[in-house]
Every structure is written in C-alpha cells, then in structure tokens.
Amino acid sequence: MKYKVILCDFDGTLATTDKRLTDYTVSTIKEYVARGGIFIICTGRMHISAVEYTKVLGTEHQKISVVSMQGACIKDKDGETLNSVYLEHDTALKVLEYFENKGEYVHVYCDDAVLVEEYNDINLNYQKLCNVPLRKVGKVSDFVKNNNHKCLKVLAVIPPEKVSYYLDEFDKMNLPDVKYFMASRSYFEIVSKYAGKEEGLREVCKILGVDKSEVMAFGDNGNDMGMIEEAGFGVAVANAREEVKKVADYVCESNDEDGVAKTIRKYCFDE
Fold it and tell me: Are 228 and 220 in contact (CB under 8 A)?
C-alpha cells in the first residue's frame, strides 16, 4: 500500500456538517485498516473527545489512533502519553491576559479538562458538542498563574469579523514560541511552536517508523495547512478554506459527500 498511514482532521473533514460519520466512510476506513493501513484522527479536540470515534471506525486497537490538541498530545491505545508539548508558562499567561483584557471569551486545555472562568452558553455548548469535562476555576489567567498550571492549548472565541484584526495583532506581538491559527470561523487557537498538526505528523512517523512520503493527510482549515504540506500526499476537502486548497496536492469532495472515503478508495485501494 502506497500510503501506509492516514492522518485526518475530524470536524469539517471526516465528519459531516452535523457531526456524523456516514456508513460509507466507516466501512471504507475499516477496509483500509483491514488491508494493513493505519488511520489516525488528527484534531484540535481533546483526546477524550476524539477517542470515542475510534471505536466506531475500528481503529481503537492501533498503537496510535488519535493525535489531539492540534498535535500537542499523542497517546497510545491504552491512554498512555507518548508525546505532549506544553505552552511556555509565561507565554500562556500573556495570551490569556491579552484576551481577558480584550473582553473575549477564552479557555485553556490541560490534560484532563477544559478550564473555564464560569459556565456560560459558549462552553456549555462546546461541552455538549465535544463531550469534554469543564472545570470552573474563576479567572483563568489567575488560576494558571497561582497554580503554575501547564497548558496544552489556549482557545479564544472571537467574532468572525475580528479575525483579521487578531491575526494582525498576534503578528505584531511577535511571540517566538507559539503557533496560532483559526481552527474554525470563530476559534482562534494557540499552541507551542513545537506543536501543530505538522509536528504531530512528524512525531507519528518517528513512533511508527514510517517516512512522511507514506502518509496521506486530510484537512479543511488553517490549522491543517502544515500537516497537508508535510504529508506525502496532502488533501483538502471541497469545503476547505481557499488557502488550504492552494497548498494541497488534491482537492476531494466535501465532508458531506464522503470526500475522505472516496479519496482513500481512489488512491489506496487501486480502484
């Protein structure tokens, strides 16, 4: 098989718009795995949020079935951490305080929960969508500071009309030890410069002993661009942002048209 490993974004790529995995997609991935392939969900979600889907896809017994937190966390099939990359503590504080002072919603991901200031519609809806535990801690920057808490990722929810403003602001801040990108129309995410999905791909290759030329990667948003460029064959779904399509080797059908599954059958099954 030319592409022994597939790394695939979940939301907006593998899952349909209403967050389903179609029967066609599930059966295709199960067949790919049965033929000897390794299919890995590579997502901004927490591990606990993504791992439930591996049981549906039949990938839960692989050594690696999920790369989570935008590449900042890799766990094995038993839930043991193989790699984790945290933000520098002072940098995480600076980012948190920046968004808090701007009056924007912000929360932090640690190993086992999402730290929030208080429960509100944003994080309760997020909890319902992603099935993750929330921990109410008061002002998040104060909690991180006072407890010397380690942060895997920071997420700010910003109005779509302010996206360009905040991207420009972060460019001007010139933080040397972070990566930042839009993971959706409103999710502005910050991770360590040693994380990102492209770094997750490289780490997977090391752990599994494969070359990146043997890896196929799928995505739809700005956080997927590095992974798509790094892979031997990078694919953007038809609903991807235009800048993502430009760096891809191939543009497939949309997430609502089984684009991932159709591409696997086309390029991995010799159909």
Answer: no
Which amino acid is it at 118?
Answer: E
For CA atoms 247, 251, 253, 258, the dihedral sign is negative
- Closest to 41 (Cα-Cα) out of 18, 62, 17: 62
The structure tokens 């995480």 sit at 92
Cα separation, 156 vs 106, in Å, equals 4
Which two tokens mark 134? 């929330």
Stated pTM of the model: 0.94
Please tell me the distance from the alpha carbon of residue 7 to that of residue 178, in angstroms, as a whole number: 22
> Strand (E) positions, 34-164?
38-42, 64-68, 73-76, 81-84, 105-109, 114-116, 134-136, 153-157
| 97 closest CA partner among 136, 152, 145 | 145
Coil, strand or helix at 159: coil
pLDDT at 112: 82
Mean pLDDT of each 10-residue bin along the chain, 271 residues long: 96 96 98 97 96 96 97 95 96 97 96 94 94 96 95 96 96 94 93 97 98 98 97 98 97 98 94 52
Give the other-Cβ count within 10 Å of 174's Cβ.
6
DSSP, residue by residue, 149-207: ---SEEEEE--GGGHHHHHHHHHHHT-TTEEEEESSSSEEEEEETT-SHHHHHHHHHHH
Residue 12 to residue 19: CA distance in whole angstroms: 8
The pair of structure tokens assigned to 155 is 């997420």
Q: For 145, phi and psi rounded to 5 degrees?
A: -65, -50
**Order of all β-strands in the sheet with 64-68:** 81-84, 73-76, 64-68, 38-42, 5-8, 215-219, 233-237, 250-252
